[in-house]
Amino acid sequence: TFTVSMVVGFLTAFGMFGSILFTPLVFQGVLGISATNSGALITPMMFGLLGASTATGFVMRRITNYRYLGTLGVAVMIFGMWLLSQVTPGTPEWHVVADLIVVGLGIGTTFPLYLTAVQVALPRQFMGVASSQIQFWRNLGGTVGSAILGAVLANRLPDYLTARTAALHLPPQVIASLPKTGSANAILDPTLLAKLPAGFVQAIRFALSDTLHDIYIFAGAILVIALVSTVFLKEVPLTGAASGRGFDAPPVEVEEEEREAVAR
Fold this sequence. Notes:
It is a single chain. About 75% of the residues lie in helices and about 0% in strands. Helix 3 packs antiparallel against helix 4. The chain has one domain: Up-down Bundle (Growth Hormone, Chain: A). The chain is mainly alpha-helical. The longest helix has about 40 residues.
């Protein structure tokens, strides 16, 4: 249980940062939305995350095979990544917001479940260590994911820019105005975009869309590994859940004393 939870935590954090870190590029670079509105449109994802996290806590105590709930959460994340990979310059804003809510639902289901699974699987004296370990691997997964997906962006964007702009057959002086580094930040510069023809700006948006498609597909592929890993989770009955008493269950110390009394 401990090992599986660490692996799933690492891989899901990889995918989570894939959605959060590059979503502003979707709104600002692909759809042409301002930075302020971009931040506001990301907020619903957190509502989905918080709602799913709360619901997961209630559901875990009321079902026997809670590992399948974790599998469902990762599957929802993968579906959300696929939806984000389909975004193009013509995609409505509400569509992207809905995609982010789907990802948030998957994250909110997965994160608390594996934290709880680790805490109940190990002896009480190791609970703090277990909790810190799963947080460590999540942070590490997010760091590694950000670096790798950032490398994908840096390597793929110039190629897509070249391909998209070459199809326009624009004069060399206009082509030369494109940032040589293919920097996503440069593409988001309103001053630069204002100097370019409308068709050229649209080609840039499509190039960024193509790049983000690769990023989300790659993040989704990593999450597929996490999906397979969830099957190997060894379930440990939750305190008070196995007896079906839920919140009416006595404290853990009382249950331990009862078991010791029966053993004697």
